[in-house]
Specification:
Blueprint: E1 4-10, E2 13-20, E3 23-31, H1 37-48, E4 53-54, H2 60-70, H3 77-80, H4 90-99, E5 108-109, H5 110-116, H6 123-132, E6 144-145, H7 158-169
Parallel strand pairs: 1-4, 5-6
Antiparallel strand pairs: 1-2, 2-3
Amino acid sequence: MTFRYDFAPTPFGDALAVFSDEGIVRFDLSESEDPHVPWLLESVSRQLGAVPEPDPGAADELAQLLDEYFDGSPVRFDTQLRIDWRLTDGFARRALRAICDIEWGQTLSYGEVAVLAGHPGAARAVGTACRITPFSIVVPVHRVVRSDGSPGQYGAHPERKRFLLDLESR
């Protein structure tokens, strides 16, 4: 199995995209100029048991979909890209797959996603799955909100979550 990486442009900067032979395995909004990218690549290497090689152009299809998305088109990444789920498992994987079904412009609470994923009462576990997802934007964890309807966090960047929700509400 080979792994490769490239960067894809977003309004937040060039984001890291890692691919396997089976599809996208990680999409992280850490910018290419971010000093954490070497650390992130190290972390991904440990998780995969292999070092991804740079592959300029590997993210071209993803970049095109991102352009459409940020232009306001309701892109559903999981039906237009192959996703390699190897960095997820168990309930987190079920929760992330359920999140893929949240429609453009819609939101569900962490508790509602827990029900869809087969574990009512596991709202905190859904929050953890959202926090550790290897698929920012590709799996729309930004569409999962608190039970009172407030957005909540998005890693260390709640302003990004608000941006994405506002984009989809137009």
